[in-house]
Amino acid sequence: xxxxxxxxxxxxxxxxxxxxxxxxxxxxxxxxxxxxxxxxxxxxxxxxxxxxxxxxxxxxxxxxxxxxxxxxxxxxxxxxxxxxxxxxxxxxxxxxxxxxxxxxxxxxxxxxxxxxxxxxxxxxxxxxxxxxxxxxxxxxxxxxxxxxxxxxxxxxxxxxxxxxxxxxxxxxxxxxxxxxxxxxxxxxxxxxxxxxxxxxxxxxxxxxxxxxxxxxxxxxxxxxxxxxxxxxxxxxxxxxxxxxxxxxxxxxxxxxxxxxxxxxxxxxxxxxxxxxxxxxxxxxxxxxxxxxxxxxxxxxxxxxxxxxxxxxxxxxxxxxxxxxxxxxxxxxxxxxxxxxxxxxxxxxxxxxxxxxxxxxxxxxxxxxxxxxxxxxxxxxxxxxxxxxxxxxxxxxxxxxxxxxxxxxxxxxxxxxxxxxxxxxxxxxxxxxxxxxxx
Length: 438
Hints:
CATH topology of the largest domain: Rossmann fold
CATH architecture of the largest domain: 3-Layer(aba) Sandwich
Number of domains: 3
Strand content: 5-15%
CATH superfamily of the largest domain: Vaccinia Virus protein VP39
């Protein structure tokens, strides 16, 4: 049996776990890299193979389906996708990409499909990706399902920017860190400052966050600048009266709670982090350990059935469960899992959580509603519906609370913030600020 490249083995095993076990690619990759002991260039190669193959899966399938007669078994298709990514999007020589993929198939699947894989990949190598996709559908050319293209186009509301947005979704994002105030100075992290947040640093050439001592200590963390902006809007908003008790209603996995706790500790405020799922609540507890001075605690509970009395808090965050279509750069498998029905099923929960957060704050207090999705049904329509149904809440313009970045106003809810990967270099975060008036 030929010796198979370990980075490619890890990448293949991640793809199979994503397909068979509904695993999250980033978590499965981290686990397998740790168990295999891969690091350095091998870990970087496995990371690129997993992320790149998942992002462009739809494009590669369009190519493969023209070259294969009949139905491919799922594991063989995953192997061919890995090979296609090396041939069409990486600087891997043809002989190396084909030979290593054939060896992988022999090791993980068996000898029978090896000939097919060899023949198909040699045909794939005959053209560039641009040549293969010339004249194909938008879905095939951009590796986005058609319904997602349509939903993003509606949310963006700028037809001339759609191609740039879809292209940005297919780029590997930079690793962005947050230096939690009072615990870590951004200069300690190295890298390059990110203007949208005074605490954000982008690591040079991707970098390994696990190698940064402040990250290992919990004084810093991995957090997209758009997610940091969510916490900043909540912390910077004006409140009337006391400002001591803050709530993170849907806190898992804990990044925003940790940042809020660090900010709050410097101002004499503390955060209660609530998370419905016990395993995610455990992640929150781990994530906020260094910011414990700014914490009221971490509890496990259903945010729509609160364990606290109405009006208990001065500020509240609803980082609502959503389709995640604003974070396709980081969670590329989401585009192949989500359906329009998922969005329809999430909307009632999102509205219920926003109402619960508004009930949780006292008159004069503020609530931030945020999603890592720009889809109109999950963002502007949820907020508009809740505002229509309540006479004790108003929308507060939030644009001035992020002065370091421009062109952020939502096309569908004036005064709310909509960030975009192609404009701002962040995930497509939606942020609306509301105030209880009575």
